[in-house]
Design brief:
single chain, Rossmann fold, five-stranded parallel beta sheet, two-stranded antiparallel ribbon, 35% helix
Length: 172
């Protein structure tokens, strides 16, 4: 079983870097081994206005147990990222901050490390990881699960492997 995860990030500045994290499960044997599923499709909704964006964010966060905030150079200054963090706190989602400034963009450039100042939103106490230096490709599933448990979510345990439509015990 996997966690449903909401990814929050600055689209214009970090989409290339963010997609490296969001799509990291693609190169794993299956979604179970990745430890998460991405629950976001944001950009089309922005064209419908602020109220549509709020409804979309609320609906998508409601279907998740963890919010992963991907921190680039200017993430903390983004209105929708702040809204997503606040809604995630209100809902009781586990929250994980992952710094992505060391990831290269489509031109091969990293960006300066972004600050963790989200104004009136208190993010002290939430874990902060670095995707590159913390070996995020291999550890994101553990980071997500630890955050969910810290938020009071039930532990999922190891993935359930199936063979021929049956569990490892032979039961359907």
């Amino acid at each position: 079983m996997t966690r449903r995860v909401y990814f929050s990030f600055h689209y214009e500045g970090d989409v290339w870097r963010a997609n490296q994290v969001r799509h990291s499960w693609v190169t794993k044997p299956d979604r179970e081994s990745a430890g998460f599923q991405d629950a976001a499709e944001f950009e089309a909704v922005k064209k419908q206005g602020d109220e549509a964006v709020k409804r979309w964010i609320n609906r998508n966060i409601d279907r998740t147990s963890v919010t992963v905030v991907l921190i680039g150079e200017d993430t903390c200054n983004r209105k929708w990222v702040r809204y997503e963090i606040q809604k995630s706190i209100e809902k009781g989602n586990g929250i994980v901050f992952i710094k992505i400034h060391n990831l290269k963009d489509q031109n091969g450039n990293a960006c300066p490390e972004g600050p963790m100042d989200f104004g009136d939103i208190d993010v002290e106490g939430y874990p902060v990881y670095d995707w590159v230096n913390g070996d995020g490709y291999y550890n994101i599933g553990d980071w997500v699960e630890a955050s969910a448990i810290a938020a009071g979510r039930e532990e999922l345990g190891p993935p359930s492997y199936r063979y021929g439509g049956r569990t490892a015990c032979g039961r359907k």
